[in-house]
Amino acid sequence: DNLKKIVDAIECAFEGGTPKPPIIMITPRPVDAPSWDRYCMDAFGELAPRTNDVARLYGERVKSVARASSCSVVDAFSLLGGNGSEEEYGRNLEDGLHLNESGNKLLHEGLMDLLSKEFPHLSPMEDGDGKYGKTGIPLEGALWKELC
């Protein structure tokens, strides 16, 4: 299985004294197939078939490999409403396949939640303006919003 080979390769790269970093796997996002089909026809004149069922099944495989490899996993499929209606999860997709602003925000929140629970020493500091605290990684430099 390709996913297992990738995880094994990462773990092998850190053998021999180097601390092993956490491996976080992310399931595929849902697919709004009708919207993706329309986008592909408009943009390319042909279909690039993707289905929500395949994304869900692949996500189940990702979670299985993560469990077997003791890796953490962010379930993007569920976070974005993949088990709901196309209308529900379609709100988080730009073109039926790629995340839009709300989809990116939900995925970011899911990742930050996992970090704060499983790897608090790697999550951004939340005290004050994010530069101070007892655990986590301090922000260095200005936020992008402060630069504009």
Outline the structure in words.
- This protein has 148 residues and is mainly alpha-helical.
- Helix content is 49%, strand content 4%.
- The chain has seven helices and two strands; from the N terminus they run αβααβαααα.
- It has a two-stranded parallel sheet.
- The model has no long low-confidence stretch (mean pLDDT 89).
Topology:
Blueprint: H1 2-13, E1 24-26, H2 33-44, H3 52-68, E2 72-74, H4 76-79, H5 86-90, H6 101-118, H7 144-147
Parallel strand pairs: 1-2
Counting H and I runs of at least 4 residues, what is the number of helices? 7
Q: CA-to-CA gap between the ends? A: 45 Å
Structural class label: mainly alpha
% residues in beta strands: under 5%
Mean pLDDT: 89
> Unreliable runs, pLDDT <50, ≥5 residues?
none
Count of DSSP strands: 2
Helix content: 40-55%
In brief:
The chain is mainly alpha-helical and 148 residues long. The chain has helices at 2-13, 33-44, 52-68, 76-79, 86-90, 101-118, 144-147; strands at 24-26, 72-74. It has 7 helices and 2 strands, in the order αβααβαααα.
Observed structural traits:
two-stranded parallel ribbon; 7 helices
